Amino acid sequence: MAQDEYVTLMASLPALGPMLAARHAPINSVRLQTRLKQLHPEHLAELTAIADLLDWSRLPLAGTDDELVRRARTVIPTLSSPTVADLARDRMELRTLVSALRRRHAGQEAPSAGVVWGYGRYVRRLVSGWREPDFGLAQSFPWVNAARACLEKQDSRGLERILLEQAWHLTDRVAGGHVFNFEAVVLYVIRWHLLYRWTRYDAEAAAARFGGLVAETLGSLADLPHPRAELREAVS
Questions:
Q1: CA distance linking residue 82 with residue 47, whole number of Å
Q2: What predicted TM-score, i.e. pTM, was given to this entire model?
Q3: How far is CA 235 from CA 14, 43, 223, 226, 227, in A?
């Protein structure tokens, strides 16, 4: 692929900056989609396929696995860029480890042979190391014990932060040499989605906390005697 075929497109996209420091995405989704219309049709189709596969909403701890794994097996071999294919594989392996953590935390045994649940190089190791706290994979995934601790403490924000950081780092690992080509566009869009997810998580968490405080306050007020009730009691 040409290394400079998308100079104009990449130059039109604002820098994303560090994910955890962001308060909001530097470009909204409508403007980003407008910029992406500069892609060749085949590249746009490929980007859509990988963005759908790596959609962060598919990572919830209550999610299912088989449909996504089957889709990965279909999509990843068709990707024209080895860099993008490697990134997709790495993200699917991250998700597989999260799936193993979720299943084990729920008290499930290791998936039996023939069950479609994971993708990549570590599926067998996860099954064989099911009873090890880190599945025997802490060397390959140094964050696994921290993620397990968050899951056990029901610290959803902490777990979300770990996983988003790891997904962001995966893009850094494959970004070298990609500045103005298709891979650069894909990496930008994937990072944008991660950054957007993190900033939206903050906003949603803040809204939930506020809602909880309001509900708690309203509940406390509901428990108080109504002024007219107090008046009736005083004169009875």
A1: 14
A2: 0.82
A3: 70, 80, 21, 15, 13
